[in-house]
Design a protein that fits this description.
Layout (H helix, E strand, L loop, with lengths): L22 E6 L10 H10 L4 E4 L8 H10 L3 E12 L2 E8 L6 H27 L6 H8 L6 H10 L6 H9 L14 H10 L3 E4 L8 H9 L4 E5 L5 H13 L3 E4 L19 E2 H12 L1
Parallel strand pairs: 1-2, 2-3, 5-6, 6-7
Antiparallel strand pairs: 1-8, 3-4, 4-5
Helix pairs in contact: 1-2, 4-5, 5-6
The structure holds adenosine monophosphate, zinc ion and fe (iii) ion (FE) (2 copies).
Length: about 290
């Protein structure tokens, strides 16, 4: 419960968040992956909605970070180096967030270049499948959507929409490119252990992104045994009950908590979410102390 403290009031102030308490959004995307905003525009928007800390977590890409960290300084905002990777757990595609990675770590950069090349090959395979379904989408149209960013299915969805082959962004997933759909293609199969090793070697912490209702307790225990540091508890896909469930697991296994909006902007129609899915500053400080103390 949030309480407003009037000056001169008495009581246990340690239990009260001031109305202007610092807030962090630790899951956002830019044009360096499948987000609609440039690093500058995202930092500026984050500042305008009152965020104090922002992590940019582009898929397989740290290209936004140098610029965003610099822009952050001019808005008096901290920008934490982040990243979102995809790993395979059995048949499931699971997303992993990394925080506080050294964005100049050469091994990390080499891996990310490799993953982005694999994404490009996958986009080619998706386009081939669509063509065989009599949809004459061209790879160039997808790459134009991706611009400088790691190419992904959202770019295919936007190209299908702009080409008039579907009536909405979501229809592209539902009819063609969603998991198991007729034009679905898997990504490169990275194991959780390899992802965690890569993140640890680059000085970062690994978090399970937006687990939702998708993972079994067995899946979660596998990830925890493989070296997971924390779970993204706050996310638009999590209701109060799910947040309580994951907070319970965090406490039970001595994990860390994270959270954010997973903001992409643009045609995904999630423009309203920036600033609404946040974690308090102590969450960030706990991460930092796990790494640096
Ligand atoms: P990719 O990394 O290329 O597999 O793309 C994954 C992204 O596509 C996710 O981060 C979501 O933003 C989006 N996405 C995946 N499945 C769906 C879906 N069923 N409907 C809408 N967007 C989706
Ligand atoms: Zn995305
Ligand atoms: Fe994700
Ligand atoms: Fe994301």
């Amino acid at each position: 419960m949030s309480q407003k403290v009037e000056s001169g009031s008495t009581g246990d102030l340690s239990q009260v968040s001031p109305p202007s308490a610092s807030r962090a959004d630790l899951h956002t995307h830019t044009t360096h992956s499948d987000g609609a905003l440039s690093p500058y525009d995202l930092v500026q928007r984050a500042h305008s909605v009152g965020l104090n800390v922002l992590s940019i977590t582009d898929h397989d890409n740290v290209g936004a970070l140098d610029e965003a960290v610099e822009w952050g300084k001019s808005f008096d905002m901290e920008v934490i180096s982040g990243l979102e990777l995809s790993v395979s757990l059995g048949e499931k595609d699971v997303h992993i967030l990394a925080y506080f990675v050294d964005r100049r770590n050469q091994d990390l950069l080499d891996y990310l270049t490799f993953f982005r090349r694999e994404r490009l090959k996958r986009a080619e395979r998706i386009v081939q499948k669509l063509n065989s379904l009599s949809i004459p989408l061209r790879l160039e149209a997808v790459l134009q959507q991706a611009g400088i960013g790691s190419v992904g299915r959202p770019h295919v969805a936007n190209a299908l929409l702009d080409g008039g082959y579907v009536g909405s962004y979501h229809e592209a997933f539902d009819r063609y490119i969603g998991t198991g759909g007729p034009a679905f293609e898997k990504k490169y199969q990275l194991s959780p252990i390899d992802a965690f090793k890569m993140i640890t070697a680059a000085g970062g912490l690994s978090f399970l992104a937006h687990p939702g209702k998708y993972l079994s307790e067995f899946d979660l225990s596998q990830l925890i045994k493989s070296g997971l540091d924390g779970i993204e508890v706050v996310h638009p896909a999590h209701d109060e009950k799910l947040m309580g469930y994951y907070r319970g697991l965090v406490n039970q296994y001595f994990l860390l908590e994270s959270g954010g909006s997973d903001f992409h902007g643009g045609k995904k129609n999630d423009d309203h979410t920036l600033g609404l899915f946040t974690v308090p500053m102590h969450v960030v400080e706990t991460m930092r102390s796990r790494l640096f103390s």
